[in-house]
Amino acid sequence: MIPAAVAGAIRLGDLTVNRMALGAMRVCGPDIWGPPKDRAAAHRLLRRAIELGVNFFDTADSYGPEVDETLIAEALYPYPPGLVIGTKGGLVRPNRHAWDPDGRPEHLRRALEGSLKRLRLERIDLYQLHAPDPKVPFAESVGTLAELQRAGKIRHLGLSNVSVRELAEARRIAPIVSVQNDYSVENRGSDDVLTACEKAGIAFIPWYPLGAGRALRSARVKRVAARRGATPAQVAIAWLLARSPVMLPIPGTASLAHLEENVAAAALKLAAADLEALR
C-alpha cells in the first residue's frame, strides 16, 4: 500500500504533516450521531490510518457529538510521535439533524476543555472555530480562542466555513495556520479563500473533498479515472493535491478498503490532459 507521505508534506505553523490526511468524522454512527455500530472496527480504521502514514487527523466536538474525539483517544492514546490532531468547536448538536453555531466565549471555553479531556491532552495542536456565529461578533469568538492560545491550551489556531473577509479579520487578531471550507472538484465556491490562503502561506483543508459523493458520480471524473486505471475517489483526491500546494485533503470513511483506496491517491499524479479535462 502506498503511504500517505508520497503526497508530500505541508506546514501547520511549526508542525509538519503529510498532505494525505484523515477526516475522522465518518467513524461515528449514522448522521455523525452516536457511537459506531462496531467500536472495534472504528479503532482498527484509525490505527490503520497511522500505519499508512497518515499523521494529521481532523475531528470536532460536534461529531457524535463528543464521540469522535473519544474514539481517537481510545484507539491511539498514547499517541505516536508526529501525530497532529486538529479539532473544532463552535457548533452544537441539539439533535441528529442539527448543526447550530455557538460562538459565545463561554461556550468556546467549555468546548475546548471538553476536547482536551476527551483527547487526553493538555494542549490542542490545532483548534479551529467550526463556524462563525451570526449572533456573536466574529472578533469576539476569535479573540476568545486567542486568549486560550495565550493560556497555553491551544498550539495553533484555524478557522472553518469562513469568507476572505473573515479570514482577514481573524488574522488581525491572532496568527491563523489553516482554513477548512467545503471544497472539491465539483464545488469550487471557496476559490477566493483558497487564493487568500496561498498568498498567506496558510493550509487549506477541504471538507467534503469528494463533494459528498458528487465527485464519484461526475462523468468527467469517471472518464479520467478510466483512462488512468484509478477510481473516481482517487482522481478527485489527486486533483485536490494538484490544485494547490497549500491543499491538505481530509477524505473520511468508515471502511478500511476505502481508507486504503483514498491513501493510494497520494501516488496518483494527474497529467496536464487530466487536469484540463477536470478544469
Keywords:
single chain; 279 residues; alpha/beta; TIM Barrel; 7-stranded parallel β-sheet; two-stranded antiparallel sheet; 11 helices; 17% strand
Describe the 3D structure.
The chain is an alpha/beta fold and 279 residues long. The chain has a single domain, classed as NADP-dependent oxidoreductase domain (TIM Barrel, Alpha-Beta Barrel), CATH 3.20.20.100. 39% of the residues lie in helices and 17% in strands. It is built from 11 helices and 11 strands. The strands form 3 sheets. Strands 3-4-5-8-9-10-11 form a 7-stranded parallel beta sheet, covered by helices on one side. The chain has a two-stranded antiparallel ribbon with strand order 1-2. A hairpin with a 2-residue loop joins strand 1 (9-12) and strand 2 (15-18). Helix 1 (39-51) crosses helix 2 (67-76). The longest helix has 15 residues, at 105-119. The protein is globular. The model has no long low-confidence stretch (mean pLDDT 97).
- CATH top level assignment: Alpha Beta
CATH topology: TIM Barrel
Number of domains: 1
Biggest β-sheet description: 7 strands, parallel
- How would you name the oligomeric state of the polypeptide chains in this document? single chain
Secondary-structure element pattern, one letter each: EEEHEHEEEHEHEHEHEHHHHH
Question: How many separate helices?
Answer: 11
CATH 2nd-level architecture: Alpha-Beta Barrel
Walk across the major sheet and give the strand order: 3-4-5-8-9-10-11
Quick one: CATH superfamily?
NADP-dependent oxidoreductase domain
Q: Shape, please?
A: globular
Number of beta-strand segments: 11
Low-pLDDT windows of residues: none
| Rg, Å, rounded | 18 Å
Question: What's the rounded overall pLDDT mean?
Answer: 97
Distance between the termini: 29 Å
